[in-house]
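Whiteboard transcription, Tuesday session. T.W. wrote the structure tokens on the left side:
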């Protein structure tokens, strides 16, 4: 079902008091934008091509430790820029518009980040689609053409934003490329573009995949939405399907059939604190519209935000029935400061909504997107972009950021709009407007290496014929302040997953060491220190009876694999019997603070006496 996405971008003339830093042919000039409580300046640099309509990607391409900017244009070109407006490179992939967000990561483990991006759009239906990969300096590494699902002799487009992840675990950490295409295939490519596996899902794919260990088997799963239609032989209905697939071979973990297409891209995160990833996703807009539904075969659809647990069960309070559909990808973060994750998403009625894990509205939400059109007139335009979450005020609390019309709209965590709601703006309101319509998701990061936060969005100069990137400097906001969902698909690899917090665990939970009386002067046992979350934990261990119990090592760093600690017990003075040797206490920190699970107390018990060992028989067969 080759459906066509609606375009919500509306051209409206706006007037702004903001002044800018404009880069044109190597020259620029500065003017202030707003008060100290908001952005301090705006920089614009023009591209050599047309309107930028894909989400901003940030990543370090030249190994200088500073994030660079990668965008795609309607003209099929991929552009890489430094935050000061210096162009690193551009590459012309052809005449297919680029709507996909670039993924930036070291796919071949050569020490440099590569760029991988999808090509193809409904706005350029006669241009071939593919996934392209480039070196850090803009050289073409390869391109992988799509198939031709609609039979028009043109490779179908790739709207889906590719993910970079090691899903096979067998090539020394090299990253695979995961994406879906309008040719109805979910594909996983090796770093060199050879095919690891592909799955034909019998209908078009708009959704971008998310990657995470959903079933906690130590291996990543792929989660992606697809369109579906009635085919009893294949168990599909008119609507959409969410697939959860094993990353290494594409085998199905589970699927969820719904009655509407899933153009939204899923987000993964532990919403309820149970230590497992939950899945949240919106839908699309097809099966209620004769122009979209195959053969005009429409039906009543459920406009909802769906939430499932790791087994595919609906979360309590979910699905959340919505007044209009949510094409956007949800963003996850602790919006209200209660230490739990909330879900933020915008809907086609121009509202931004925030939900607790139980499906209830966060206090102060939803909010209607409001921008001024002229003095005394405001507009409320929906967008196909997705929200991001980051601190833009420097108070340690999150703001919600979303483009609408020709500008960026920002709300604080309580739903108060910080950007202008009228023209001229009220005192203290920010003005984050541009010269042309904004259609896709911005990003926040430090793109100039000053340790401060910048907000970056792609768009166009006045008239739309020349693409542009807009950068607002927030000089009062440290780049180290919270930004839990700073870009579309969250990170530069496009994982679409909120990472687990570092979580200290120690096994076994109690240590019993058994020793044959009369042999040796010491005996040994073992503990394993692990991080059940993500990131790295600095750990320290100490024994309450250090003269009797010594540890080696007694400190270390632990991330993805467990670390063994040898426990040596001095036997001097112990007769037969069972003896308590106090406990071993293990503490863990990350980022200067204690991690979940810390401290861990492990009781230590020594048994001295007869020890009987039983050996299981085995048979050795020789040829």
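and on the right, the sequence the group agreed on:
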């Amino acid at each position: 079902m080759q459906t066509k996405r609606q375009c919500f971008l509306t051209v409206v003339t706006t007037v702004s008091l903001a002044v800018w830093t404009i880069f044109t042919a190597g020259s620029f000039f500065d003017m202030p934008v707003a008060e100290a409580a908001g952005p301090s300046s705006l920089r614009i640099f023009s591209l050599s091509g047309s309107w930028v309509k894909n989400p901003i990607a940030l990543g370090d391409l030249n190994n200088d430790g500073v994030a660079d900017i990668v965008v795609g244009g309607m003209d099929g070109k991929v552009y890489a820029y430094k935050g000061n407006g210096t162009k690193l490179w551009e590459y012309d992939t052809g005449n297919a518009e680029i709507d996909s967000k670039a993924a930036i990561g070291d796919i071949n483990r050569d020490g440099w980040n590569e760029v991988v991006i999808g090509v193809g759009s409904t706005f350029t239906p006669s241009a071939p689609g593919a996934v392209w990969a480039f070196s850090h300096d803009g050289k073409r590494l390869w391109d992988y053409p799509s198939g031709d699902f609609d039979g028009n002799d043109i490779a179908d487009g790739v709207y889906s934003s590719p993910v970079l992840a090691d899903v096979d675990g067998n090539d020394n950490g090299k990253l695979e490329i995961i994406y879906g295409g309008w040719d109805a295939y979910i594909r996983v490519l090796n770093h060199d573009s050879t095919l690891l596996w592909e799955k034909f899902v019998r209908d078009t794919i708009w959704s971008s995949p998310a990657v995470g260990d959903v079933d906690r088997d130590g291996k990543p799963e792929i989660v992606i939405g697809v369109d579906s239609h009635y085919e009893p032989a294949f168990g599909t209905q008119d609507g959409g399907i969410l697939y959860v697939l094993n990353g290494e071979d594409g085998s199905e973990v589970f699927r969820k059939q719904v009655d509407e297409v899933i153009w939204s891209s899923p987000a993964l995160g532990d919403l309820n604190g149970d230590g497992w990833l939950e899945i949240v996703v919106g839908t699309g807009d097809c099966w209620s519209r004769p122009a979209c539904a195959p053969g005009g075969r429409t039906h009543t659809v459920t406009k909802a935000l769906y939430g499932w647990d790791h087994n595919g069960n609906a979360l309590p309070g979910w699905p959340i029935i919505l007044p209009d559909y949510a094409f956007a990808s949800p963003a996850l973060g602790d919006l209200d400061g209660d230490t739990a994750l909330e879900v933020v998403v915008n809907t086609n009625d121009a509202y931004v909504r925030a939900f607790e894990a139980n499906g209830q509205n966060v206090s102060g939400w939803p909010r209607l997107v409001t921008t001024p059109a002229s003095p005394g007139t405001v507009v409320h335009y929906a967008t196909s972009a997705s929200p991001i979450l980051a601190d833009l005020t420097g108070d340690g609390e999150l703001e919600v950021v979303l483009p609408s019309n020709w500008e960026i709209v920002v709300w604080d965590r309580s739903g108060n709009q910080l950007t202008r709601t009228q023209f001229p703006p009220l005192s203290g309101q920010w003005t984050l407007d541009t010269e042309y319509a904004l259609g896709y998701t911005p990003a926040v990061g430090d793109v100039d290496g000053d340790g401060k936060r910048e907000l970056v969005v792609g768009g166009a100069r006045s008239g739309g014929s020349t693409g542009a990137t807009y950068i607002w400097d927030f000089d009062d906001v440290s780049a180290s302040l919270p930004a839990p969902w700073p870009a579309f698909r969250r990170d530069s690899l496009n994982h679409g997953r909120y990472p687990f917090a570092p979580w200290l665990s120690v096994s076994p939970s109690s240590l019993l060491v058994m020793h044959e009386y009369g042999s040796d002067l010491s005996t040994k046992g073992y503990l394993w220190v692990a991080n059940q979350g993500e990131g790295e934990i600095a750990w320290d261990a100490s024994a309450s009876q250090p003269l009797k119990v010594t540890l080696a090592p007694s400190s270390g760093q632990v991330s993805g694999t467990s670390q063994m600690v040898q426990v040596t017990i001095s036997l001097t003075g112990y007769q037969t019997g069972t003896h308590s040797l106090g406990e071993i206490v293990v503490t863990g920190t990350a980022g200067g603070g204690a991690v979940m699970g810390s401290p861990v107390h492990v009781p230590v018990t020594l048994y001295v006496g007869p020890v009987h060992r039983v050996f299981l028989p085995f048979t050795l067969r020789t040829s």
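Someone added at the bottom: DSSP finds no helices and 44 strands in the chain.
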